[in-house]
Each structure stands twice: as structure tokens, then as C-alpha cells.
Amino acid sequence: MVIPFLWMLTLSLKPVSLLHQAPYLIPTSFELSNYAEAWDAAPFARYYLNSAIMTGGIVAGQVIFSSLAAYAFARLQFPGKELLFLVFLGTMMVPFHVILIPSYLIIDRLGWVDSYAALIVPRMISAFGIFLMRQYYQGIPRELDEAAMIDGAGRLGIWWRIIMPLSGPGLATLAIFAFMFAWNDFLWPLVVTNDPNMRTVQLGLAMFQGRYGTQWTLLMAGTVTATLPTLLIFLIGQRWFIQSIAQTGMKG
Amino acid sequence: MTAMARVRAGWQHANRRGDVSAAAMALAPAVILFAIFNIYPLLYSGYLSVMEWDGFSPDKSYVGLDNYRALVESATFRNALGVTLQYTLSVAVLGVAASLVIAVLLNSGVCGQNIYRLVYFLPVVTSTVAAAVVWRYLMTPGTGYADVLLRDLGITPPNPTWLRNPTWALRIVMLVGIWKRIGFNIVIYLAGLQNIPKEFYEAATVDGAGTWARFRHITIPLISPITLLLVIMSIIDSFLIFDVVYVMTDGGPIGTTEVVGLLLYREAFRYFNLGTASAMGWVIFAIVFAVTMVQWKFFGAREASL
Amino acid sequence: MKRASVILAIAALLLVAPVLQGFSQVHVASAQDPIKLVFWNYWDGTNGEKIQELVDRYNEEHPEVEIENVFVGWGELLPKLQLAVAGGDAPDLAAADMVWMPALANSGALVPLNAFIEASGTDTSDFYPALLSVNTYDDQIYGLPVSTNNLELFINTDLFEAAGLDASAPPATWDELAAAAAQCADPDSGVVGMELYTQPGEGLTWQFQVYLWGAGGDFLSEDLTQAAFNSEAGLQALNFWLSLIDSGAYTLSDWGLFGQGQACMVLDGSWMVGGMAESAPFNWTTAAMPAPADGQPATNMGGEHAFIMAQDEAKQQAAWDFINWLTSTDVQIEWDEATAFMPVRDSVATNEAYMSWINENEPRLLPFVDMQQYAHNRPPVEQYSELSDVFSAMIERALYGQMDPQEALDAAEAAVNSLLS
User: Fold this and answer.
1) pLDDT tens digit string along C104-146?
2) What is the pLDDT of residue C12?
3) Mean pLDDT of A164-175
4) How far apart are alpha carbons C407 and C350 in whole angstroms?
5) Rounded to two decimals, what is the model's pTM?
6) Interchain CB contact of C82 with A (< 8 Å)
7) What CA–CA distance (Å, rounded) separates C76 from A191?
8) Exposure b/e, A44-72, CB count within 10 A at least 16 = b
9) Residues from chain A contacting residue C70 (CB–CB below 8 Å)
């Protein structure tokens, strides 16, 4: 599982002249200058800021909107429910390249090209998020919301006060995946930004793979660096999983 | 009761509990965003699929079902469907099964489980393109670490040409697909496993159920909504696979890794046949949708009512 | 009330969207502002630094224009151009791979340059005609070549010596090439004698074309309406590749063996010279690509061409002035010296200062400069990318023994002709 990462790390620490030397998995040289050089190859500080804003917006949107919609599907009775759910689910099955041009034309019509709105708004909701939270909510006993309803709570109040607090692990999972998806996304930011100031980290990394060859050491250094934020989020999220288990354990 | 009356009764019942207005509010953001950024583009591509358009010029011309007819007749497209199906089945079946086993082991408190979780999650957090680039490098004969390792262990004949070998190329791409995905499955399984009340297992243990029996009769049924989610997600994502193949083999050798996502990309952005690409997109969409529906009905029956 | 606050929160989030939009810069042009031009290209590394330097200098010398040099990755430039055109936000000018030019010119998205060329008295006959021809449609010129390159033989001197071969007397014919490759190959250590590009797609096609042209064949008929590769020359070229495989001089493999010191020879581009000089952990040299004894010297050319997409006439004029400057002899010499691209103009190739610069700094570029005159271009047809893919797919089948050579050429011919009809 980890060999590719060790390898990536090793390559990122090699001087260019040793790139094609016999393979070692453990770094034998420590060329930290690759990291500095990769960082300087493009305005990466700006790219990280853009990626952070974009990712933050998407995660916030997904956590609220997906779980809200999932609640409707998991707990509420309304006509056309199954059909609507399948329509939502269906949006995941469309090859992205096919809707790329029409989607871009909408962003263009809205005047959103080169804006954070273009990067965030279309992806504040995801069928995967709704599906995930719906499956998750089905594991939460219904007796809890029925008790709250007897106490006179409204339907959305139940979602907010009963369901959400119990959804720690589910929401953490959703947030992690939303983060990861947004942070690593390449094609959509590529399409809706023209201004170099609006580029994201992943677009910056594409610079190292050119028409006339790949700058391996820099690509690897840049990739290692770009992977760290997601890893950090995972570690934090994981702690949250365990905490929430401990809590429910005490209550139970 | 007539159908109409039943519908009306359903409405009234739902309304009485305040469900419909709550659902309308809860679903409004999702409906609006999906309509603008997913449904409309999909319908627009349906329109493009009966047109001939290069994506540049202002004129499009209507060609009826010609684009679809050409696909049906294309041996390349049929081959790609076959390859995609093989890939999808392997990733969905092996990937989900393996991740359930690992997730259960991790959840039962194998020591240092945080480290293991991190290890399995590493591939998931790396961007797909970067991961595929590294794998391609790893499999390079002579200088790739995986190649050298396998050769040193005597597992492979001298000078194997992994990604250029018609037998091996697809297997390696599948392996990378599973490797990339397994952590995703594990994390979602773990979130689900933690939902299963410990009392169930305790009660079963008191009744004398062994490890296997508890897994078989408690874990599997209670985790089945998550399994359904993961199988469907795996099938959808695998069917739409593009990046890994694009980076590692670009469809070769002799078409053995040529998946439909690759053909679609070429038609749209290399050959400028937006009409053909859109038709291909709709065929893929229809297949995935049909497969998902079957899954849904098959598994869904066992699930709590929607 | 809780419920109200939830709804308020959602409403607030929805309202955020338009506000976020405000983050993007809004700039209102005034009459005194210089004409702003956006220039897309995929030059990176040394090439990217040099183009940025040239653009900066041009902006300084021409206060009435301000060109913004925007890097777009090679793999992404074409889809992005397509989307930008569809959305009406195409860049004012761009430089792109010459092989995309016919499709771009045909799309109607490019501005014909004839009137500009005439008005500024630019002598287009100084450009290599093969380069210019990919930009010419119905007698209209849609772009000018900015950079070019070609393919010649790279030799790993260390492996040559170890096999008892002399790299200073490189093979001059296909037979000598095959003999040297067979002698140098060492299957036990995975070393191949002559590396071939056998992955499907344009990489295979553009290497194969060098062999095809060397044997005296052609890829398409002169009027570009049908395949011409299914000929004696085509068969000779394919059989030559197969003989390299059969003799053990080459094993079907992933591209890139030469750079890893695992191939004695390879046919590769002039752009490799700079990077190899920096990073190759072995000694190497270059030579002209051999042809059959009764064949003719030939190579394939690549490179970038600049074109205009601006709708506004003032912008078109400003964009043209820049392209005209960028492709002028003096600027081209400076560009070629910095990037190791090959000359696009005769006046550069015959320039003494340039040639002596090459002799002094990197004589391994000489075979490329010498052979530029024998460089063919890939047929300038709109469907070229697709032709190249179907052609390479059939050749690949022959290489894997799924089809015999004649069968593969027949199949490729049928597929290519049906695309052209």
C-alpha cells in the first residue's frame, strides 16, 4: 500500500542527475532544494489560498446541503420521493466530459468565469454526499426522532437537534471526502479559470508535466506537499470519529 | 381505493405531519443546484448527441440517430465496453469485499489501527493523476521499483514489459484502481460499523455465537445499506474510469485497456466530434443507470423501507 | 426558534454565492489604458522562462500594448481553447502544437493573417514551406511558426563501447542500424539495441512516418484525400520494425528506456538535448537518422505556431504586431539559442552567428539543424488526430503479431480512407 508513497518521497529528494540510478525505496539522498524549487516554479502561495477557499466553501456546502437533503430522503414522507432520489443518484452516472461544455457555458452565462463562485457553487451539493448521509441516517434509531416529535419539535428541528449531533462519524466522513474531492479536483478548476491568479494547487502541479518532458523531482516534491493538507484533515477527522464513539459509548 | 384516492390520502397523511413542507425546504438547495449544474447540462448533451458539432464553430447540423448508429456498429466501442465491464466488476467485487474484511479487522481493535487506517487512506488522498504517474514509474522495467522487486523475488521472467503486455496491462490497471479505492471503502465501512450497537455482539456472544457467526448474522445484515452504497459507488466510478488509464497505458497495448471514458475523451477533445462524444455519454449513462437500478431493487428489498 | 435559525443559515449560504463572485477582479477599461492582450501557450521550464522574458521586454518597448503571458498545460490547452471559443472568451492570441493547426484553422475560430502579412511586408517565403503549409487553408494563412524541432538518432556512447561499437562512426543506413542494434542489445540486463515508440497514438505514428518517408513513401496522397502508406515503402518500414523485434534488438516496452540508460539508440527529438545534457547519467551523442541504402534522408517535424483569435480589430492588429516581432529573424535567433528549438526560417539556419553559437555550445544539436531541410510535416488535414490513432492501432497489431504486416496496412488504409471520405 505504501510503496508508491515511499517511492514518491524518495524521488522528491533526489538530485536530477541521480534520477535514473538503480531504484532504492529508502531515500539515499536528501535534496530538499527540490521542494524550494517546486514552490518557486509558480505562485504556489496564491494557489494554496485559492484551493483552501474553494475547498472550504465546498465542504461547508456539502455538509449542510447534503445532510439536509439526505434527511428528507431518510425520514420524511413526500410524493415522488423515490423518483427524485433516483434522479439525484443519476447525476453521478453522467460521464463528466460530456457535460463539461454545457456546464462551462452556464458558468460563462452567469459571468462566473474566474470567480470563487464558479469553483464552489456548482459543487456545494453532491449525490454521493446525499447517498452517504441517507444510508448513514438509516442506522440511527427512529425512536429518537419520534420521541422528539412528541415533545413538539418540528421536522427540521429534529434534523438539527437530534440527527445532526448523532451523525459525527458520518459527517466527518462526508467532510473528509468532500475535502479530498475538492482539493484534488483538476478538470473543473481548469475549465472555469483562465486568470493565473485563480489557479489551484492541482493546476499548478500540471506545470511540471510539459510537452517536452516531465520534471520528475519537482513533480514529486510538489505532489508530496499537496497531499499533506488532506492527510492532516484525515488525521483530525479520524480523532473526531473516535471521540464521537467514546461519547455515544458513555451515553449508552 | 383508486390510485388517485391513494395518492391523495398519501398527500394528506404526509402533510398532516408537516413532512411535505419540511421536505421542500430541505431539498430546495439540492434541487436548484442539481437542476442548473447537472440536469440541464445532461439534457443539453442529449441535444448535442443528435447533432454534428466540432465544439468550435457556431453551426451545428442535425443528424438524427446517426451518432448512436455509428456507435452500435463500432468494433472499437464494443471492445471498450467489454474492457470497461471487466474493470468495473473486478474493482467493485474485489474492492468492496476486501475492504469489508479489512474494516472489520480494524474496527475490532487490531493494535495500532490508526496507523493502518492512515496507510490505507494514503492512496485515497493522493490525486489520481499523481498516483497513476507513480505507478507507471514503479512498473517501468529496469528502473521501476516494483519491477525490480518482483524480478529479485524471482516472481517474474527477466525483462517483463508490464504495461506493454496484453495480458498484464489491464490487471495492473485494475490493481491500481482497487488500491486507490480501497481506503475510501474502508473509511465509509468504519463509520457504518461504529453505528452497530455493541450490545448486539455482546448478546450474541452470550448466546454462544462465534466470530464467524457474529460477522455473518450481525455485521453483514446491519452493514448492508453501506455495502449497497459502496457497490453502487464503485460501479459508477469504475465505469467512468478515465485518469488512471489515460496516464498509465492510454488504452494500449492493442486495445486491452481501452475503456469507454478514454474513447469519449478522445471524441470530444481530440477529434472534435462533440455529437459522437455526447451520444457515447448517453449510452454510458443508460448502462450505468440500468445496472444501478438492478442493484437497487436487488439489495433495496433487504433494506429498511425508503 | 431553532427551525427559523436553520432556514436563515441556509438562506445566508445561498446568498454567499453572489458575494463570492465579487472576489474576482473587475476592471473597467478607460481610453488611456494600453491594449490588453492575453497570450496562451504551453511552454514551460526554460522555454517558459524565455517566452516570459520576451513578452516582458516587448511590453516595455511598446507601452501601447500589454500582453499577458498565460501558461496552460500542454495536455489542457486544446480542450481549454475549445471551451473558451464556445463560451466566447478565447484568448487574443495563442501558440499551439502544429499538429492541431488544421483542425483549429478549419474551426473558423482563427483570424486569417494574409492582410496583416501584406500590410507589414513580411516575407513568408523565408519560413520553411513545410512548416507554413500546416497553417494554410484555401490560400489563407492562419498562423506563423514560432518554434520547431525534429527527430534524430541518439546514441548511448557507453553502451556502444561496451558492445565494441564506435559511436563516432554512427550507422548510416538501416542495415547498419539493425546490425549495430543487434550487436548492442543485451536481453539479460534488459538493454535494447534500438528503442521504438510502440504505444498507440500519435507517438507511434510520428516515429513510423520517419521510416516511411525514409523508404520513399508518403502518408497521404498529395491531394490529401486518401491513404498512401499502403505501399512498398510502407511495407518496408513496417518489416524493418518487425525485424528489429525479431532479432532481439528491441523488445516491446514502455517508452523511455534510452533516458534510463536501457537503450543503445533511439530516435528522439531535439528538445531532449538540453534535459539529457543536464541529467543523463551516461555519455551520449547524436547523429542523423539513417535511411535505407536506396532511400532518402528524412525526419518529422514538430513545434508551435502562433495565431490570433481576438475579435476586436485593434487587438488583432496588436496581436499581429507581436507575432510578427516574435517570428522575426533576430528574435528567433535569440529564442532558438535559449531554448534549443530548431530554426523556423532559412535566415536563421544560415545565420553565421547562430551556427557558430551551436558549434561552440552544443554540437550535439548539429544533426538536427542539418536535417531540418529534410523534415516533412504531418499531413495538414482536419481529422489528423483520429487518422493517427487508427493508423497506430493497426501498426500495433502487426507489432504484437495479431496481423501480418500487409494485413495491418490494408486495415489501416481502409480505416483512414473511411475517415477522409
Assistant:
1) 888 888 999 999 999 999 999 999 998 998 888 888 999 999 9
2) 52
3) 84
4) 45
5) 0.88
6) yes
7) 9
8) bebbbebbebbbebbbbbbbbbbbbbbbb
9) 194, 196
